[in-house]
Amino acid sequence: MSPSRVLLLLFALMPAMVGVAQDDDMMDFFDEVEEEARPVTAVFKSQRLINVHTCETPGKGEMNFVIAHRFGRISDGAYALWGLDNASMRMAFEYGINDRVMLSVGRSTFEKTYETGVKARLVEQMEGGTPFGITAYSVVMANGLRWADPERENYFSSRLSYAHQLIVTRKFDDDLSVLLVPSFVHRNLVDLPDRAHDVVTLGGGFRYKISNRTTINAEYHYFLPRPIPDEYHNSLSLGVDIETGGHVFQLHITNSRGMFERAFLTETYDRWQDGELYFGFNLNRVFQVGDRR
Amino acid sequence: MNKTILPLFALIFLTLSASAQQWVTRAGEVHFLSETPIEDIEATSKEASVILDLESGRVAVQVPILSFHFEKALMEEHFNENYMESGTYPKAKFSGTLRDFGDLPESGAVEVMVDGIFEVHGVSVDRPFNGTLEKQGDKVILNCRFDVRTEDHQIPIPSVVRDNIAEVIDVDIRAELSAR
Predict the structure, then answer these.
(1) Contact at 8 Å (CB) between A44 and A56?
(2) Residue B131 near residue B140 (C-beta atoms within 8 A)
(3) Per-residue model confidence as pLDDT tens digits over B48-69
(4) A245 touches chain B (CB under 8 A)
(5) Closest partner residue to B71 among A213, A243, A292, by Cβ?
């Protein structure tokens, strides 16, 4: 075959080859896209893992209404229906002023405590980017009990305590999300003179999805500085989240009776090994009250 | 020699012009609506990638599931987490061929039929779609409306929200394609 014939043959075959190449070309179009980096969403099902805050905030314009109960000690036995006779309650409203910042107000029957807090997602875990998220939560709590001794001079500031937390979170895969929470709690007034005004706790927890709508959860807070007074204990809670449409039900068992930061981080008086446990739930109901855009 | 070279050039020219027949966008709009007596749920993505080859008649579309935005943030989370499982199935895809398609007229919309594989939630269905193509200046406008049965793509809807979510979702696509 002369070289010109070979050339001719090659060129004659070219449309067919190009045709094939073109199909690949066509699908190449989708590979060329630079995927826009998106934040990892739904790291946790709710604003709280059990007691501690997660990185989650309500979406812009969303109002999350929380009703939470902790019943009495399970170790109180049949006479108190294993604690169900003594419910302690917390109500809170949490509002998303944008997709990253939340304001909240709450009230607990436990020590008639009012609280107001702000939570902000400082760093978000990104798909194929930043490997973890950092969220800050700060809350002011005010004890609302009558003064133990109304005769002496009492100051409003004595009622106040503060908690500041950094919540470091990572969603490892669709099922497993983990958080680490160093907390700093300051109490203006402590119950006994030798008690520390400033307490640090190191907390950790995780959620694991056992189905699309159900997770199991655990959290633990380690009390510092050591040694701590005998009657104080670390807080350990185990729970389950069940999601149905606009509600998340969180059922749990914990050795902490209070549901705000000062109480469960620094004033946990009960121990798992003594069966001094509280059954409880958080019920979250979401309403869209503001505009999303 | 000259006699051989001329048709060769003609061939090369033809293949080149064929590749200029590809029309694309990365900002196609996909909107869907779930209509029930209790509530209407809708979402829009403006990140659909569409490629249309008028020479071979092939069409392909891909939409990231996370690019659908809803009126409520919680709906968006549930859509991705509970229904579409977008972590596992990040995209909806279509790849197909225009049926009996000739040249696109310089003006006016033409009805077209496409057959192909439609993949949502990791489940592929071989099905036809109806749509229109229209040349407008240097653009080709693609419009398409169709229904998706959630059942066909194994997207379970729990009984508690049965009344809130339609079994058949109306989808419409609009894309302005430019020459690639």
Answers:
(1) yes
(2) no
(3) 999 999 888 999 999 999 999 9
(4) yes
(5) A292
